[in-house]
Amino acid sequence: MSVSTRPVLFRPLSILGVLLGTLCFAASLTPSLVPRPPLIQGALGGLSFAVGYVFGVALHAAWASLQLPVLSGAARRAVLVLALAGCVVAAGLCLWWAAGWQNRLRALMELPPIDSAGPWTIAGTALAVFVVLLVVGRLFAVIAIRLSGGLSRWIPRPQAIVLALAATALLFWSIGDGILVNGAMRMLDGIYAELDQRIDEGSPQPTSPLKSGAPGSLVGWQSLGRAGRQVVSAGPDRAAIEAAVGTPALEPLRVYVGLGSAETPEARAALALAELVRIGAFERENLVIVTPTGTGWVDPESQAALEYVLRGDVASVSVQYSYVASWLSLLAYPDYGVDTARAVFAAVYDHWRALPEDARPRLYLHGLSLGSYNSDLSHDLHQVIGDPYDGALWSGPPFNSRTWTAVTAGRNAGTPEWLPTFRDGSVIRFTAQKDHLGEATAPWGPYRVIYLQYASDAVTFFDPHSFWRQPDWMTSPIGPDVSPDFVWIPGVTFLQLLADMMMAVVPPKGFGHVYAFAHYVDAWASLTDAPGWTPEGLEELKAKIGNAAP
To answer: Are residues 378 and 518 in the same domain?
Structure first.
C-alpha cells in the first residue's frame, strides 16, 4: 500500500499538543535549584514544550482510539479558543513573573538582581528548539509509516506497525547514540584533552624537591596535566599557614600523578606510592587520598582548609583518571574512574597497613563530585574491616553514590533528605552551610564519614524519578538555599533538574556545587579533631582566610 509522507511532514499542529506544550513551557519558567540565563531557560522551555506536545498528541490518539465522545461545531470552537487564550495568558504571565522568581532565588544565593529575564530570548530559543524536535519527530513518523506500508504487503498490518516502530526506533537510536552522541563526545574529548595540556602562567613549575613535577620528582611536570599543575603549584605554603595560624607549621606535601604520567591505572598508582615514599609522606601525622573530579581537578578550597586546620602536617595524593567534566562523565560513564580509585587506594592502603600502628599517619579519604563517587567505590568492606582507615569527607556526592544513597534512604524518621541524620551519628554525619556536625546524639567513634552537601546542589539532588513523583527533599522543611517558589511539576521538574546539574557550578561559593572554604574548615575540623584548635580559633581562621582562599 502506497502511503504519502507529505501530510505527515506538513500536517497542522495538534491543538491539544499545543495547549499542553504551552502549559509545560510556562511551567518551565518557574525556578528550580540554580538561576538560569535566558538561553538555557529558552532551551529548557523548548524541551518542556515538546514534552507537553507529545503528551497531548498521545492523549488525543488514545481518546480517539477509545471512540470517546468529543465536542463538535460551535461548542468545540469556543472551548478551543478559550483554552488557547488561557494557555497563552499563562505563558505570558510566567514570562512576566520569571524575573521575580529568578531574583528571589538569586537573593538566597547572595547574587545581584536582574532587571529582566530576557523574555524574547527565552521565547525565541524555545520556539527554535521545539521546531527542531518537531521536525525530528515527524521524520520518525514518515519513516515508520513508509516502512509499515511496505511490511503490510507481507504480514498483517498490526504486526507491520509494531515492527516498523521498533525498526525506526532502532534506527534513530543508532543515529543518535552512535553518530550524534559519540561525535559530540569525541569533540568534547578533544576540547578537554587540549585544555588538559595547557600550561597556565599561574601554575609555575615548583623548585622544591618535595613537590611533584619538580626537579628530582618521579613525575614529569608536563605529564601532570593542567589540573595537576594547578594542584601542585597552589598554596598555602608553610609561611602562609604560619602567618594565618600564628604557630609553627610544616610545609604541606602534595603528590599528583596525571594521565600522561603512566599508561595504566595500576602503573599510575604505583608511581603515586613511590612519590609518597620519596618525599616522606608516611612520616606525617595525616595522609589523605584525594580522588579528583572528572577533569582531574582538586578543589583548592578543600585543600587549603585541610592544610590550615592541620597546620601543614599532612600529605595528600591524587591520581588523574579523566579530563572530562564530572557532570558529563556522571551522565555518560558514571563508573569511569573506579579502576583508578581502586588501584590508588589498594597501593596506598596496603603500604600504610604494613607500617607499625604507632608509626603511621592517620589515613583519610576525600572527594568532591565524581571524586566523591569514585572515592566511595575505591574499596570494599572486606579490605578494611580488620584495620580501617580513619575516615572520609565526601562533598557534593552525586545522586547515585552507593553509600550516600543507602544512608539517605535509611535516615532517621522526620529528618529532611537534604540534611538527614543517620542513627546516633557516631559514624556518619551530614552538614551544609551551617555546621551541624556537633548535633549528633552520640560522640564520634574511631571511624568517621562526613557528607558536606548543599540543598541547592543538583549534582547531589538530581532525582531520575522526579519525572513522575516529587522528590523527598522538596517537602517541608526545604533547604535554606532552595527557593520557596520551586514546586514539583511532572515531567518539567525532571528537565529543570537536568539543566540545574549542568549549571551547578555557576552559583557563588557556598551554593550549588561550589563548596566554600569555611564549610570545609568545619568538616575537616570535625573529621580530624582539629588538634590544637579551639572553636574560637577556627572561627577566626574562617574570617581571616574566607574569600581570600583560592
So the answer is: yes
Query: Which residue in the block uniquely carries the three cell numbers 514546586?
Result: 487
Phi, psi of 286, deg, nearest 5: -140, 140
Give exposure, 143-175, as e/b (b: 16+ Cβ within 10 Å). Answer: bbbbbbbebbeeeeeeebbebbbeebeeebeee
pTM more than 0.85: yes
Peptide bond preceding 236 in cis form (omega within 30 of 0): yes
Gyration radius (Cα) of the chain, Å: 27
Same domain, 212 and 343: yes
Is the Cβ–Cβ distance between 342 and 378 less than 8 Å? yes
- Beta bridge partners, 511, equal 514
Upstream peptide bond of 12 is cis (omega within 30 degrees of 0): no
Q: Are residues 290 and 143 in the same domain?
A: no
Domain co-membership, 145 together with 225: no
Instruction: Grade residue 78 by pLDDT with cuts at 50, 70 and 90.
Output: confident
Asked if the structure places residue 195 within a domain, the reply is: no
Site of grid cell 599517619: 361
Output the nine-digit C-alpha cell for 74.
460551535
Residues 231 and 134 in one domain: no
CB 60, CB 17: distance < 8 Å:
yes
Q: 470, 497 in Cβ contact below 8 A? A: no
Domain assignment present for residue 484? The answer is: no
Residue 59 lies in a domain: yes
Residue range of the domain that includes 274:
206-457+509-548
Residue 319's H or E segment, with its range, is: strand 315-319
Structural domain count of the chain: 2
CATH number at residue 363: 3.40.50
Q: On the CB side of 376, how many CA atoms lie within 13 Å of its CA?
A: 26
| Residue range 281-323, pLDDT digits in tens | 999 999 999 999 988 899 999 999 999 999 999 999 999 988 7
- Measure the CA–CA gap between 25 and 44, rounded to whole angstroms: 8
Rounded CA-CA distance 484/469 in Å is: 18
